[in-house]
Each structure stands twice: as C-alpha cells, then as structure tokens.
Design a protein that fits this description.
Helices cover 54% and strands 7% of the residues. By secondary structure, the chain is α/β, with parallel strands linked by helices. Among the domains are: 6-84, Cytochrome b5-like heme/steroid binding domain (Flavocytochrome B2, Chain A, domain 1), CATH 3.10.120; 111-329, no CATH class. The strands form 3 sheets. It has a 5-stranded mixed β-sheet with strand order 1-5-4-3-2. A two-stranded antiparallel ribbon has the order 6-7. A two-stranded parallel ribbon has the order 8-9. A hairpin with a 2-residue loop joins β2 (17-18) and β3 (21-26). α6 packs antiparallel against α7 (169-183), α6 (136-162) packs parallel to α13 (306-329) and α9 (240-247) packs across α18 (411-430).
C-alpha cells in the first residue's frame, strides 16, 4: 500500500495564524481550531498567541491526558513534513510522561486542605474581632488578618484554576467562583485570562500583562520604546509624564503595590461589563462580586468611626499587597523580550523569565507554590505539594540543556534583587537621553 499521509511544511502552517483561520500542530499532526477559539476553556489568547505554530510542549503543559481524546474532531488530515522535535523538547516530553505515569499530576496531597483551614481561620478571626471588639488596635490587627486570608484564598484559586482541586469539575468551578468572586472580590475569569497570558508569554513586554504597568512602573528600560500591549490592546506610550513617574518609581513602588488590589477590583468589573469579552458564567460572576461588596461594605461600616474604617481598609490592602510583591519578584529580575511568544522556544522563555526562591518546607504555605516558579511554569498542572519533589529532575533538565535555573537564597534576597531592579530602571529613566514624545491633545 502506498503512503496516504498528507504533509505540509511549517511555513504553510504559519499562514493559518488568524482568528478566522487558525491551525496549530501537536506532535506533528495539524489541527484546525478556528471554531474552537471562542469556546476554549482557557480563553482565546493561548490559541491566538500560538496560531500557526507547533504547540506540543504548551499543550502538554496545560492539558490533562484526557484532552487528547478530543483532538480528533479538529484533525485536518495533514501532518508536518519532516517533523523532528529538538532533544530538549523530547526530554521535556519524556519527563512529563514520567510524571504522568507516577500519578503526580493527580496526587494533590493535603496542601489545599491546610491552606483552606489557614484561610478560613484568618478570615473568621478578622470578622470576629471587628464585630466583638471596640479596640482600634484590634480592628487594625483584623485588617491585617483579612489581608492574609485573601492571600491564602487567592493561592487556592490559583491552584484550582490550574488543576482540579475539588472532586468534580462542577464543584471546582463553584469553588473558583465562591473564593475568587465572593470572598476575595476578584473575577475568576479576569484572573484566568491574565494568568494564562502570563504563563504562555512569560516576560514578553508586549504580550504578558504582568510586565505592562506603565505609567507607574517599568521593570526594564526596554519599555521606554513605547511598545504595544497585545493583551490590553493599546499603546504603552513612554511620554514625558510617564518618564517622570518611572524616574521616581523607587519611591512610589510600594504605594503602587498597595493600590494593585484596587486596580484588580476595577479590572474585574471592566472584563465582566465589557461585551467584547467572551466570559463564561458572566451573570454568576457579577452576582459573586455583588456578594463581596455587600459583606465587605457592611463589615467596614460596622467599625465605630471613620478613622477606624480608613485604617482597617488601608491595612487590609497593604497586607494583601504582599502577594502582588511575591508575584512581581518571581519575574522582575529575569530576562524580558519584546517578540511574541513562540511555541518552539517556550521552554527557554519559561526558565529565563522565572526566579525560584529557596525556603524551608514549613514556609511553603506563605509562598503558595511560587517559590518553585520554574517548576510551576514548566509543569503548571503539577499540584504545589509535588513541586519540591520534582525540583531535582527539573534542575537536571535545565543543566543538560544549558537553561538557566535562577534561584534566590531567600525571600529577603529576592526582595533585595527586586528593589535593585526598581532603582536601576528609575535611574535609567532619569538619565534617558533620547527625546521623549509629548502627547498631543
């Protein structure tokens, strides 16, 4: 019998890179996912970012093995001609297969339960203290406890968005909605959209939303080029006003961290109220935010005076800002790039753009798994309780293929590295010699 397989080249695949004509390659087979873009549970950005490319490594990283069963309905009948993955990619896929056979992706341990207990205890203590005490200092402490509980609840949301932490998908979605929207005041759809874009385009200045904080913050002087945000769909002008703000970001950095929570609230509503975004369960999410703002407003109004109210909210946001700082420090010291993400160098981009933080096992609750940032980015579906176990194997993979395995010796060293970057970029903005365009009114 003759060979009936049909082949196309990678160049021919690359022309199918638009939303209304979107093909991808997985393990050498070509799939037409044009009609799946708006229904993709992970949102449209992962497909749009890697349209017309081989996405085998990315697909393995983000999808359970059961998802392979659904690929056939998208198969075009074509294969990539002379498909030959690199040795690095093959080693990564072998490691993924080994973890799958060992059941590590399904063994979630007791980490989520412990985190939930900590979060609920902190949340209850905060509410109880506000409602039963007349002491200003107790109320101030309760603000701190509420901020800590938000951090732990968001870690749970982060885990459940990457893999199923509950017994069924339905209960997992309910947990996402309840914890993120009702308790923390954040849209789970907003979280997933931004977080997915961050993972697939880590430290891309035009595609990763975490790097796009102009005009209040820049993590590299590369941002001085007035780049375009393909996530927010807008130009990020480095004008005279922005230059002034960045020049003093070493003074305003922590203030912007505190206000990050406010911005997250605003962006959550913007996503849910904008009809141009395809949001699953939009009504349920809006109701969840209504629940949050009802209980949080009533809690603040139950305080005895305006000073107590302001102090309580301020401390809550300051403590909750620790989490934003944790997320920033995992990437701000690492390599950035301007180009769009590419499927074939996805592994390199993940390792070059991520920083681990060494800590004792008893401090894992504080970091929420982000202390193993490289492991998490290479295997995002891996439960956090397994990240410490797979770390030696991931380190070997990096050493074999000359990939960086960046690791700070402590939280404090990572903090110092972050602040050093903040100060250096501020100095570069002050000494920027190229003419800065003025905005035209």
């Amino acid at each position: 019998m003759g060979d009936t397989l049909k082949y196309i080249s990678e160049d021919e695949l690359s022309v199918h890179n638009k939303k209304d004509d979107l093909w991808i390659s997985i393990s050498g087979k070509i799939y037409n996912v044009t009609n799946w873009v708006n229904n993709h549970p992970g949102g449209d950005l992962p497909l749009l970012y890697f349209a017309g490319q081989d996405v085998t490594n990315v697909f393995l990283a983000y999808h359970p093995k059961s998802c392979h069963l659904y690929l056939d309905k998208f198969f075009t009948g074509y294969h990539i001609k002379d498909y030959n993955p690199s040795e690095m990619s093959q080693d990564y896929r072998n490691l993924w297969s080994d973890f799958e056979k060992l059941g590590l992706f399904d063994n979630k341990g007791h980490g989520i339960l412990i985190t939930m207990i900590i979060a609920v205890m902190l949340f209850y203590a905060s509410i109880y203290g506000v409602l039963t005490s007349d002491s200003f200092w107790v109320h101030l402490s309760c603000g701190g406890l509420l901020g800590l509980s938000w951090i732990q609840f968001v870690w749970i949301t982060h885990d459940s968005a990457h893999y199923q932490v509950m017994v069924t998908p339905g209960w997992n979605r309910f947990a996402n909605l309840f914890i993120a929207n009702c308790v923390a005041g954040l849209s789970i759809s907003w979280w997933k959209k931004g977080h997915n874009a961050h993972h697939i385009a880590t430290n891309s200045l035009e595609y990763d939303p975490i790097t796009q904080s102009l005009p209040v913050f820049a993590q590299t002087s590369k941002s001085f080029s007035s780049l375009t945000s393909h996530f927010y769909e807008k130009k990020m002008d480095f004008d005279s006003f922005t230059r002034q703000l960045i020049s003093y970001q070493h003074f305003t950095f922590f203030l912007s961290i505190v206000f990050a929570r406010v911005l997250q609230f605003v962006e959550s509503f913007n996503l849910l109220l904008s009809r141009k975004n395809n949001v699953f369960y939009r009504v349920q999410e809006l109701l969840g935010l209504l629940v949050f703002w009802t209980w949080f407003t009533l809690l603040v109004l139950s305080l005895p005076d305006v000073v107590s109210m302001i102090a309580f909210v301020a401390v809550t946001f300051i403590v909750a800002g620790i989490q934003s700082f944790q997320i920033i420090m995992n990437h701000v010291c690492c390599d950035t790039y301007i180009e769009p993400p590419v499927g074939n160098d996805w592994l390199e981009k993940q390792t070059r753009g991520s920083l681990n933080i060494a800590c004792s096992p008893w401090m894992d609750w504080f970091h929420g798994g982000l202390q193993f940032q490289i492991e998490h980015h290479l295997f995002p579906r891996m439960p956090r309780c397994q990240l410490r176990n797979i770390s030696p194997m991931v380190k070997k993979l990096c050493e074999k293929h000359n990939l960086p395995y960046n690791c700070a010796n402590s939280f404090w060293e990572a903090s110092a590295m972050t602040l050093d970057v903040v100060c250096v970029v501020a100095s570069e903005a002050r000494n920027y010699v190229h003419p800065v365009p003025k905005k035209l009114i």
